[in-house]
Amino acid sequence: MSDNEFFDDDFDYASIGDLPHARISVGKSSQDDYKRSLRMSSTPSFLSSDETMMGDLMSEADTEMPFTPAKSKAASYHFTQSPSSSSSSSSSQSTQGPFHTPVQTNRKHKPTFTAESPSKRPKLSPGTSVKNRDEDTSVFATSQQCNGYFILSHSSQYQQWFDKYKVPHGAQFEIARLSAEKVRSLDYLFIKSIGGKSNADAIRMIEQRVAAMGVFDGEHEKNQYQKAFKAEHVATRPWAEQDKEDERMAEDTDACLGGYQESPGHNWYGGKVVYRGKMRYINGGANFKVELDKPELGPSTRITRKFGSKRILRINISFDGVQSHRRARAEELVELFKKPFVLNGRVFRAFLERDMTVFMFMTNERLANGTRPGIVVEDDLQMGLTELFEWHNPIRENMNQTAAKWASRLALGLSTSIPGPMLEVENILQVADIVSPKGSDMTDGAGLANLATLSAIQTQLNLSAMPPAVQVRIDGNKGLLVRKSSDTLEDTMKIWIRPSMTKVKRSYPSNDRAHRTIDVLRVAHNPRVGATLSVEIIINLSHNGVPLEVFKELMELSFQELKAPLTAWAKDPETTCSPQDELVKLWEEVCKKGSVGRQRVARHKVSTARLHGIEAKEDEDMEEDEDGVHLGKGSSPWWADEISGQPSTLEETVMYYLQAGFDPRTSWILAEKLKSTINATIETHKRKCKINVGKSVYAFIAPDTTGRLKPGEVFFQSSQPIPGREGYECSVVKGPVLLGRNPCKLPSDIQKWQAVDCFALRDIKDVIFISTQGSRRGADYLAGGDYDGDKALMIWENLLVDPFVNADLHFADPPEDLESYFQTENELVSDVVRRAPPGSENYIPELQTVLLNGLTNSTMVGMYSAFHATASYELGYGSSEAKRLAYMFVDILDGAKTGKRPSERTVKNDCARYNGRRPRYVVKMEKASEVTNTRSAYAERQVSEPFIMDELLVHAAKVADAHKEEVIKLCQPKQGAMPRDDDLERPWREKLEGANAGTPESASLKKDLECIKRHVDSIYEKTPITGVFTNKPISERQDILRRQSLKFMSGPKLWKDGGELSVHWSMDELSRVRASYAYVHDCQVQVDAYKPYSKRFTRFPFDVAARALCDIKAKAVGRETHLAGFMADCLKLKPLS
């Protein structure tokens, strides 16, 4: 493109997405200067990282939003409303209504220049560092606030290269992410070399280049490392998935939606790549800083499937734990997120906030590249923010909704879901809600689905059985679809939607495939039998008549049931089965108690875990996004070290050693790991005061639409045998039961009802049905629940049920003066539109004010939950003050939909009364690092009777400590000696014998063994100190151990690899002997010269060579089995008898 092509006397912007029409004018007298600077900045650079690679960094940092004057030394650049555009817009509105969206264009426009007086550059926010033109500008502009928008990361020069050579989006994102680390050798030639490649290939090249620079440890690029961790990378690295998305969407824009009925065996769907960043506020700083995180595979949503994963950017907001800063900066945050955010030239706009995470949408706008600043429309095939709103929740059809409720509906498109079958519009039917004579909606949130629909969901989601109910989103509807009673397996799929399920209204049914696809959130199958009582449930049960001694008895039983199966191997051999059978049973119990199978599924299938009610194990010391800036090298939490073979979790480690043939009676390492596993679980039960109730179930609740159940009656039939009231197995629960759900803050939140058998509902299993008769919805008594996917706890344990007495129902009604504590924003959508009509400059910012309102209210939920706990402790669970705070908590929780928030006066008074004081049991149940020793931190009990949790924590500590002592004794070696394993020492001892045999090969072998010894000794000396090491977050610990095991496995080199060992060694033999010596050396170092076996050995040998040591052991035990890792992860051990 010649320079003159940028200059034209007639320049106009057409529609630019979410901004009004605009025009640029630049001084004519400055053309020569501007051409000269443009020529310099657009010249490709082949210089090194220490030399200038870009043109003018400030070509973006100077950038101003349209309609805001911006000036430079030679000329000023300002945006003015185009007369023609203005009149066109006015005409359009008068003839087509306020919701008419102007036709967007992909035409490239040329600026016109007019003379203006010189002036300054635009000001950046305080604390922003900007390089001068004469300085090195080979870095991206990051976290800079210009007048009008926020630069996440952008470089004009790099963006020209990205666009010219078609660098894939994922590679652009990674380069921008790494720019924060000042990675500056990705020059013009390199960018050109990755152009046109897939995301996976381009990012592999970036990792290799950066590793070669020495910025990060390059060891991970070794073939052994990459191959070993392939399973972990496949499960977490998103680039192959992003490539598949790009390829499919290039052929069909709806290809990522899934749900194609013509290909039942093809269940792929898109939207599973998560792009995110963290915005931090550092105390004492002047700016918010955004750090991009490495993308990962994660759950899919409707919006990411429809528009592609890369169109959504999640920004998590962190205040480094200082809550006061969060409240003080809330309004500032809202104003900040109302700005366009720029990442690699693309514009992202905020459209939703949930739990201090702001969701941003990539619009059809971008920074003009190669010219002076401006945000322009680039691609009319993509949509702006206004079009997203119209697609998901059309404003014109929802004008009478409150603005807060309209804003909350956007969350429906971001629910974690899996696409099910797609329905025809005519098969999405309507059915009326059942309403009581007093106006209570008895079926709120629950619809129906025929057998054909549920069968299709089973097939498409590859479920083991047809679900009786599914929690779904479909178009603007949300709720639970329950199997239609007395239905037959028809060929046509149909569902029935109730008015209470409809959250987004349309004037006519949408034919969009995304709107006709059933988005499945969770399915009802194999409900959890044997639940754990939460603290709030325990407090409620105690208040309503359950004595302290009952809780103590159940707690002691819980500890015993936890420990007994894991210590059965230590019993007298004459009273038990064979030692091998005991080890098999131990393996099975560890797998079950540690939920190992579910955790493996959660690691391998991150996008479908929630569907099956599976959540990945998390480390409580670790932040959600603790990965920081790494090149994908950092480990994912709880994955095994595939180099050494050592698993990450304690439970899987115990199982790994057991299946190799180790016995806790003779193996100190297995005994130690087992002791740590059992005692860690006991400690968790003690700290959290866990009480397990075997005769209970946690399942979806649904209304009885047959009308057979009477008021106060419920029905539940399990698909699997469950413990009956008298101890025998059954499938249908009968008799008095307790029903409750979390949160449980009111005495009436648990109800004692009657479970009955109902023949009309016998075909539907694993769902708790509640009567639709009476004056009030049954679920409403359970903490204000409904049937759109709520789950409840049903208990039929006589020890809890018999003494329980239902609380007075006045607790189920809010205080008469509750509204006086709130200020309610009842502004309607129509009010917002009237104040800022569509197409006006303020339209998007006004909507964003509503959409981001949660940022100003996010701390209130946790705060009022804590206030309620304090009031319940000090004044009593049934006090009027505790009741008020419970209802305030509920209303604040729903504040995003209702627009209600506590008044400033209320918050001030409640903070003065409750803030800074916490019940003693709450402090004790927290981790030690968070416990305060300040006496004023404890709330003082102001009622005579003791509080149930204070009593239970004392009893839990007593019982747990006794069990832990017993476990320690069981796992101690006999006669105080720490046994050494002859099997593990044998490979090294045999080689030593050969080296001392005096044969011609002995000298060479002795030299080889000395080489192995030096290598192992050098690694051993660098072993991390255990005390400091175990306090680190899990991913950091894993990375340290993986680096250590990689160094251990990397030497000494074989002869064929140019190493110092003789030609006789193979890799398998080296691995065995090296591992054996590591074990021997550790034993020798740790044994006291005068008191043999007085010190326990370290974990070093197994940390660096667990697979080799287990292989040695399995061969020694005999009949070892060869099993690939991916097969082992999928198998379950089931004893033959």
UniProtKB/TrEMBL annotation:
GO process annotations (BP)? siRNA processing
Which residue stretches does the UniProt record annotate as biased composition, category Polar residues? Answer: 39-51, 95-105
* All copies of domain RDRP core, residue ranges: 289-932
Please list the reactions this protein catalyses: RNA(n) + a ribonucleoside 5'-triphosphate = RNA(n+1) + diphosphate
- List the residue ranges of the region (Disordered): 13-133
Low complexity composition bias: residue spans: 81-94
Task: Give the E.C. number(s).
Answer: 2.7.7.48
Where, if anywhere, are coiled coils annotated? none
Alphabetically ordered keywords of this record? Nucleotidyltransferase, RNA-binding, RNA-directed RNA polymerase, Transferase
Any one Gene Ontology MF annotation carried by this entry is:
RNA-directed RNA polymerase activity
CC per GO annotation: nuclear RNA-directed RNA polymerase complex
Describe the family membership recorded for this protein in Swiss-Prot or TrEMBL. Belongs to the RdRP family.
Can you name this protein?
RNA-dependent RNA polymerase
Q: Which organism is it from?
A: Cylindrobasidium torrendii FP15055 ss-10
